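User: I'm putting together notes for a lab meeting next week and I want to include a structural view of one of the chains we've been expressing. I don't have a solved structure, so I'd like a prediction I can at least talk through. The sequence is below, exactly as it appears in our construct file.
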Amino acid sequence: QQMTVSNQSIGSRLCPPYQGNKEALGWALDGVARIIGFIAPAVFLSTSIINIAKKEAGCTADEECQERIYGLKPSSFLTTYGTIVGLTSAVCLPILGAIMDHTKHRKLVGQVTAIIQLTCIFVQIFVNESNWFYLGVLVQIISGFIGWMHTVTVFAYLPELTNDENLLVSWTANFHMLQYLAMLLFLAYMLGLLYATGYSDDPVLSNRSAMISCFVITAPLFLITWTRLMKPRDALQQLPSSSSIWTIGFKQVYHTCQKLVTTKEYRAIMWFFLNVMVVEAAQTSIATICLTYMTNVLQMTSDENGIAIMILFIGAAIGTIVGEKLVKWTRINPIQSNQLSQIISAVNTSLAALILTGPGQQALAYVVAAIWGIGVGWKITIERFIVCQIIPKDQDAEFMGFYLFASQILVWLPTLVFTAMNEAGVSQRIGLLSLTLFFVAGVGFLCMMGSYEEAVTSATHETHEDDDNTRDAEDSSNADGQGEEKKDVPSEPEI
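Assistant: Thanks for the context. Below is the predicted structure for the 495-residue chain, given as structure tokens.
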């Protein structure tokens, strides 16, 4: 008996991760690679681009540069990049979704996008004062778009990892935990490296250190995932003969929009999706706009920006707990909780524009970043709960696809507004304040949803009504079939 217990203990310690599911392990490894591949250029390359551009434009690092280089102010490069990537991603999302659903090229897309992303990371190691625009800005536009394609491809695998819903929920939570942990460890490592080497004030060397570290970590993770762990997939649906791979996604978006506008029972869902469009755009743009603001106005260095982003993500982790517990422990319903999270984000954004006015305010910037993070985590948690409750269960695939589309369609707009205002000579504080308008509009759309209970009831009623119609159709079909037998017609019915 002692030997049996000992063997069981050893077996439990040697149990493969995710119960031996190779694709789940691949999803986890790819998630770590994706978050590090995002953080390294977002924090360190972005700061380097602004400072190098200011230097080439003839400005010093400790002033707001009004000169132009390549037709733009140095403070407009990041937001212009964000606008281009966001707009391109929004336009291409229906096409990429169609490729995932109607072709067998899912794994090929994952492999190709991973290789291109690694190539971009490797190239950006060599960014310096003479090539920063081409290797930094232009290559990063390509990397950002390809990274978005890769993320969509990976998420197509997620619901197919297991048929056990509880196990999928557990794995998904584990994936997010690993990503947060990897991001925090990478930022802590980079901050320690920059402090030890003294590279934090050198934009070229700080970026080079970050991109070398990023490549060394992400290359083996991507290669193992897409050569050993992820499997090919057949097409989920056959492509209709009257449609092409380039148009079927847009047709589906049009039909869903038409249904949301014309069907009274879907009115609450329509207002919810409008909220997702504007608020997701604001929260997605916060990182790009704030990195620009902190580097150009507050004159924060690469390591200080890294600390701010780390605090933002820690705040997001806290926000997920707040969003979950508030609904359970209080009488606030999910719609009201979502409104509260967005009001806090709007107030925090307004205060940031009013009180963060110049250098030497790093501590205050860290507090603002933490509150932004809490708002982001809170909103994501409660928003995903709401969408699962208010959409009809027999149409969840259609509406969840539209939810992804709604979360991407306007991500380019806040950065475009900020860039236009910045290029027109408007203070960046006003540009930062413009994000508040998106949060205010989002709160208004949530108010138009009406009662949360009525929204859930409407979704349930629509599902039951569709079930009744299906049963009536089946009964009618059975009755017709019996009538046909009495007339001695052939027993082979037309399908």
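A couple of points you could mention at the meeting. Confidence is low (pLDDT under 50) at residues 3-12, 466-471, 476-495. The first helix runs from residue 2 to 13.

User: Perfect, that's what I needed.
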